[in-house]
Design goal:
two-stranded antiparallel ribbon; about 20% helix; globular
Amino acid sequence: MEKGRYQRLFDKIKKEAITVDYLPAEKELPVGTSKFGGKPYLPKDFVWPYYEETDFEGINKNRPLSFIAQINLEEIAGYDKDNQLPHSGMLYFFYELCTMKWGFDPKDKGCARVFFVDTDRDLQTAAFPEDMEEYCILPEFKMQFSGKTDLPYYEEISEYVTDLEWDQYDEESALYGYEMPKEGISKLLGYADIIQNSMLLECEEVCNGIYCGGIPTITEEQKKEMLERSREWILLFQISTLEKEGYELMFGDCGSIYFYIRKQDLQERNFENVWMILQCF
């Protein structure tokens, strides 16, 4: 691909992401504020999600998911340049930290959940389930947002645009100001900062009951069909290793968790089918 085509490609595929920084919460944050950890602000009738699976010690148990973050969508509406998210309401992200599933097995469904609540609902500070492990309760941090223009990593775009050279793609993207971050960040929307491999096809495969912990046993025709459908998946939220104020939350070995959603589900405000994948070094 000649150099001029790279710029045209970048103009076509670039997306706006919303980056997240974490700041100390020196006092209790107002109800409805975007935040990481602490006690979530939820409707009174909210049912806390649970997930049953075997942990690293071989103990099978039905465990409450950890509350990871809540996002007040009004706070980030100005950064949503591609107009993909609702511009009001709350998004809540949960993940089960005892088992810390990777998302490559269809049985991992339910280990991570996303909930959307309209702003017309009364919110209140929610108590943690009594059976939640202490280390699964995360300290509270304020969130600070900013905008960022994203390009996909070569590993992702090359599944759909096959005449790219990886070294030229990286060189050209850096030349035009799109250099990929050297360490993990947290962000909404945009493209995933890939650690291992592209995750779009994996989302489509695993949500069709295919185990992706090895080489998926599907035909070339099935893979072709799923690859085409995988274009419908987009990144909703990437949460990377957090090291702040003496606290560390690490996913695997300096990894990230990625919440993906189909475009149509996002348009319809349906967060039931969000899929989570963990990648690490």
